[in-house]
Design a protein that fits this description.
Length: 170
């Protein structure tokens, strides 16, 4: 279990860092494109495309983080008026559905990304399948996040606190 907890911590920190970097990249590309467009009247032809890719990757990775930290919207407002036992069942049901969505994204997302034809000329003829690989990557991460959280809910895995560092545990 300690190894699983360490894997969970490293993955959570890694995804969080990548999301922060993607946000910085989005802001940087947007500012650069706007300045080049308005001040120098010479916008880069690749700026909007890379900003869009960074945005899509950020959202997909953040969804996996939201599933793992259980900070998704789901039906949080309804939970306050339901009995605790029913709320636990609903939360578990949401996690099972998220795991199913993640599995579907991983399997069919890979097939879709692998089969897509063409290239982005503005990015040096980068194959269109490269940015599409976020589908299976995010799908796998969502599946893992939901599975780990389900394991915590059913008692197979000890519940973690926010920001737990497994290196500091006994």
């Amino acid at each position: 279990m300690r190894l699983l907890r360490l894997f969970d911590w490293i993955l959570t920190r890694g995804i969080s860092t990548v999301c922060g970097l993607l946000l910085a990249v989005m802001v940087g590309f947007t500012v650069y494109t706007v300045v080049m467009r308005t001040v120098f009247l010479d916008p880069p032809f690749w700026g909007d495309t890379l900003t869009l890719f960074a945005n899509v990757w950020l959202v997909m990775l953040a969804f996996a983080m939201a599933v793992r930290t259980e900070t998704n919207i789901a039906i949080e407002s309804v939970y306050g008026i339901l009995p605790a036992r029913f709320t636990r069942v609903l939360r578990l049901l949401w996690l099972v559905l998220f795991a199913a969505v993640g599995a579907i994204m991983a399997i069919f997302g890979y097939q879709a990304a692998d089969r897509i034809l063409g290239a982005f000329w503005e990015l040096g003829n980068m194959p269109k399948s490269y940015p599409m690989m976020i589908l299976p990557i995010a799908g796998l991460l969502i599946f893992l996040a939901a599975s780990l959280t389900i394991a915590e809910h059913v008692g197979v895995l000890e519940r973690r606190g926010q920001g737990d560092d497994p290196q500091k545990q006994n």
